[in-house]
Specification:
Oligomer: single chain
Shape: globular
Number of strands: 6
Order of helices and strands: HHHEEHHEEEEHH
Bound molecules: zinc ion
Number of helices: 7
Amino acid sequence: MRLQRSAAAVTTPLLCLLTLAVSLAAPAGASTARARLTPTPRAGYQFSPPIEEFSPYQPEKFCRKTVEPGVKRFERLLTSTYSGTAIVSDLRPCASDTSEHYDGRAVDWGVDYRKPSQRADGKAMLQWLFATDAFGNRDAMFRRLGLMYIIWNHRIWGSWDQRWEHYSCKGVTACHVDHMHFSFGWAGAEAKTSYFSHRVSAPVGYPPHRRTHRRH
Ligand SMILES: [Zn+2]
């Protein structure tokens, strides 16, 4: 994702109700049979009821040189669950816009919405992230992973308002049609949230001790 610093994504509602009707509603090409065959991740751990609140919005601030450990583990979860898919980007050199890719807190997963099998994989992943758990915690895995927002196929789902909104963009890649973007808050990025540590974590602030350099 590339957020312009002046865009104020948190405070500026993005209005396009018509577009909301598109996207993750049942795609024309995905049959019920295909959907049943699409796997969902296995957490490999029986969680207890306590769970994190949604990650606060913590926009990119640094130019980092490493991918955060929680992000790496999430990448492995994606590619091991959905064979044939790939991570297409994570850490990137800093530029003039705002992107958690520069912090090592973002990952782009190569699921193209235009391709039925990849679209099914992406939808299955989202259903897993946003499912209500056995304790009634909604959006449970999204919260336990410490995710901050997701962008896919012209839409963005952010922890700040917890709903899909239109993502203003132009072009296949900029509109995230050919990949799904995930940004983590610092707690999830550092693998401190309950998905990784099995203990509920309070939000984690910026790590000033790891600051590298600011862009010019
Ligand atoms: Zn991205």
